[in-house]
Amino acid sequence: MPLYEHVLLGRQDISPQQFEGLIETYQTIIKDNGGSIEKTELWGLKNLAYKIKKNRKAHFALMNIDSPHEAVTEMERQMGLSTDVIRFLTLRVDELEGGPSAMMKRGSDRDDRRGGRGGRDHDRGPRGRPDDRSPRPAPAAQAKPTNDSPEKAATTDKAEKTSDSPKGDTDNAGGNDQVEKVEKTENDGKEE
User: I need a surface site. Which of 9, 152, 182, 190 has the fewest CB within 10 A?
Assistant: First the structure.
């Protein structure tokens, strides 16, 4: 008899128990029509790459089937009528895979490459103490402008001193008045 690999996607709204029951109904269709199920793997609820019939996730299952073509055709017809089946794919193969499929091996291989799940603290290098780092340069906004005349430098220094009020202060009128007074006194000195 021909050999088939069949992958089935079920709606995300059904429970895992309902999905298992759905698979059992399709297995009975195969068995009633003279076929056999060699292996069944439940891959669980997984994210889809894109929406299929308004679903972002689906329950996945793989069945290795040894049955006549008519049994597989009937199973596919029943799946097409079911609202719980989002999509399915049946492939005819020369021989069935022994052991777990690539999807079932995937999780254990990843753990082996990472050295197991424990000890995730060591995935990055040593960070060192904060005092080992070199000091950061001051941002450009805080750098003081260089002025040629001492009068302008004195004015900017006094303006910076008055603007160093706490951030919670909403009334800056007092600080602005002081700056205006400083400018008036310097201008009065030039007139005389």
Answer: 190
